[in-house]
Amino acid sequence: MKRTLYNEDHEAFRQTVRDFIAKEVVPVYPEWEEAGHPPREFYSRMGELGLLGIQVPEEYGGGGETSLKFNVILAEEASAAGVSFGSSSVHSNLILPYIMQNATEEQKQRWLPGFASGELMFAIAMTEPGTGSDLANIATTAKLSEDGSHYVLNGAKTFITGGALADRILVVGRTSPYNPEDRRGGLSILVVDTKSEGFAVGRKLHKIGLKTSDTAELSFDDVKVPVADLLGKEGEAFSYLTQNLAQERLTIAFGAAATAAAAIQHAIAYTKDRKVFGKPVASFQNTKFVLAECSTELQAMQIMVDNAIELNDRDELTVPDAARAKLFATEAAGRIIDKCLQLHGGYGYITEYPIARLYADTRVTRIYGGTNEVMKTIIAKDLGL
Question: Is 236 an active-site residue?
Answer without folding.
Answer: no
